[in-house]
Recover the amino acids of this structure.
């Protein structure tokens, strides 16, 4: 089971609001911040704490205890405010800072500031939709049970040359292979035990989130 974290989400637009609520539902202690009092009121009952705050003011962040948080997500759309908020969090020695990039230039500045992870919600959603269009039945499978996840991953080097039977993923990790996409060829759905993996294959798996994570960690899949 994952260890709950203290997370601050700064900026409560669509992305920030959804991020804060989802993190709270996943069991984390979430502090949601925004300059807009109405946005703060709207989210109050869905997170641990919510407060009106100008995240470009380091003193306000310090007074809210941001220096004690393990993770901060900067979801501010305005580039200047986003950069200032990141700088304040770094001065407060927040161990991990994730920030939303709204443009290529914005993302580049965030990376140069040393942000741990820059996310691109619109681009990420476009990739997800593209995958759903390529594998149209995956969404139906995802909706069967909330504690199950479907993920696609590049075949690790340790799998190359081995068959599905030899790897025995179901027994070792309690995950099932739904399909394998080999670039330039037709996608193999529900491959048999004799299917032999090649470098570049993309494996579509279903299983519990903790089992998927264990597979990724043990096989060193980024």
């Amino acid at each position: 089971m994952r260890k709950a974290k203290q997370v601050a989400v700064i900026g409560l637009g669509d992305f920030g609001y959804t991020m804060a609520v989802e993190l709270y539902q996943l069991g984390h202690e979430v502090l949601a911040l925004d300059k807009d009092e109405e946005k703060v009121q709207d989210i109050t009952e869905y997170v641990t704490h919510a407060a009106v705050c100008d995240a470009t003011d380091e003193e306000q962040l310090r007074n809210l205890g941001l220096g004690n948080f393990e993770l901060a997500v900067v979801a501010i759309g305005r580039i200047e405010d986003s950069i200032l908020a990141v700088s304040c969090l770094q001065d407060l020695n927040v161990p991990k800072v994730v920030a939303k990039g709204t443009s290529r230039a914005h993302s580049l500045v965030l990376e140069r500031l040393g942000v741990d992870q820059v996310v691109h919600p619109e681009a990420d959603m476009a990739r997800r939709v593209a995958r759903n269009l390529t594998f149209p039945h995956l969404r139906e499978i995802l909706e069967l049970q909330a504690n199950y996840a479907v993920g696609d991953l590049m075949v690790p080097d340790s799998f190359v040359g081995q068959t599905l039977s030899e790897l025995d993923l179901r027994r070792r990790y309690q995950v099932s292979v739904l399909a394998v996409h080999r670039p330039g060829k037709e996608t193999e759905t529900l491959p048999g035990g004799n299917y032999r993996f090649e470098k570049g294959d993309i494996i579509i798996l279903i299983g519990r989130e903790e089992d998927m994570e264990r597979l990724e960690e043990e096989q060193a899949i980024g």
